[in-house]
Amino acid sequence: MDRSSPVPLYYQLAQQLEAAIEQGGLAPGSLLGNEIELAARLGLSRPTVRQAIQSLVDKGLLVRRRGVGTQVVHSQVRRPLELSSLYDDLETAGQRPATRLLSHAVEPATAEVAAALGVPEGAEVVHIERLRLAHGEPVAHLRNHLPAGLLDLDGDVLAETGLYRLMRTAGITLHSARQTIGARAATPEEAELLGEPAGAPLLTMERTTFDDTGRAVEFGSHLYRASRYSFDFQLLARG
């Protein structure tokens, strides 16, 4: 702790704890101990420690358990807004990604999917539905449509790695994407799948991805737990 800094001590402590959680130094389920023990160990006042802990409780990273102490719940996934896959982002952040394959089938394209992929309505497309987990907890429900014949996929491969990594391995060069982000309440079915209460806020994302020839190679319609997930933006002022 830098006691000469104008940054409040509680905020410095909260930042250090949050960094330890995000980097895996404090894994889900880890105990911090009670406020008295923490204050004595860190040489801080009890109100300072209480304020730092409360700020992380409010973020959903910590929980207070009577008779147990303060416990790490999970780290929130912060994803940079760039053309990357959730699997790769989770892996880079040390979040131990895993995938549960829910569906993998060839089906006729709906009007929405056909428009996104630039194929005739009713044309055959590949539909993949997956549940993405981090540290064993659901993070996102992913639905993807691909043009038929784009990739040779099987269930084992889809459960082991990310879709964009498979595309790159197949020689597809991802160039750009058109993306829309929104939010809505979870239906009972979505809430059960993602481990949230019915009506919980979910982030939504629709993305159409193009290769270096301008061909649409993927249309994704994804749901993310707002309690576990956020997008990071970098905004530049116009000159």
TrEMBL record:
Domain of life: Bacteria
Alphabetical keyword list: DNA-binding, Transcription, Transcription regulation
Organism: Streptomyces thioluteus
UniProt xrefs under InterPro entries: Bact_HTH_transcr_reg (IPR050679), Chorismate_lyase_/UTRA_dom_sf (IPR028978), Tscrpt_reg_HTH_GntR (IPR000524), UTRA (IPR011663), WH-like_DNA-bd_sf (IPR036388), WH_DNA-bd_sf (IPR036390)
Keyword Transcription regulation among record annotations: yes
Protein name: Myo-inositol degradation transcriptional regulator
HTH gntR-type domain boundaries: 7-75
Matches recorded under PROSITE patterns: HTH_GNTR
SMART domains noted in UniProt: HTH_GNTR, UTRA
Keyword Transcription: yes
